[in-house]
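Pasting as-is:
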Amino acid sequence: MASNPVTSTDLSNRSLRTLTSQELAVGAVLLDDAYNAIVARVPSVATRLDGTQPEALQKLLVQVECAMVLRVLNNPDGKLEESGDDYSYRLDAARSTGALYVSDAEVALLSAGDAVAGGSFTIRPASTVTGSGYWASTDSWVPLP
């Protein structure tokens, strides 16, 4: 299984401000958490990173993981709205369940090159046959060498 290709340097390169040493240290831990959250939602990411052309996926991982972590670092309280007189604020609904999350749009972006279709209107075959090959008849699978 592939390891997380995103580093703290990637994080600081994508930030609009200079990150403190504490933010970089926390960011490094959150990057690993972000990778784990991504692999939990899109398990094929780990195997696709080990594939023959992982460069495009690595670039997407840098983009998505950094966005996930910077959401936390730039808004650690998870505030969506804040007011002035008689002060009031409203928490972001997505952040209220946990500080670090991968959005549905990010999952869709990482799943775009996935060979495994999923979701509504997907018909999965009942067969457990994997790998390259062809069906010689309705009940005979012939694997390719």
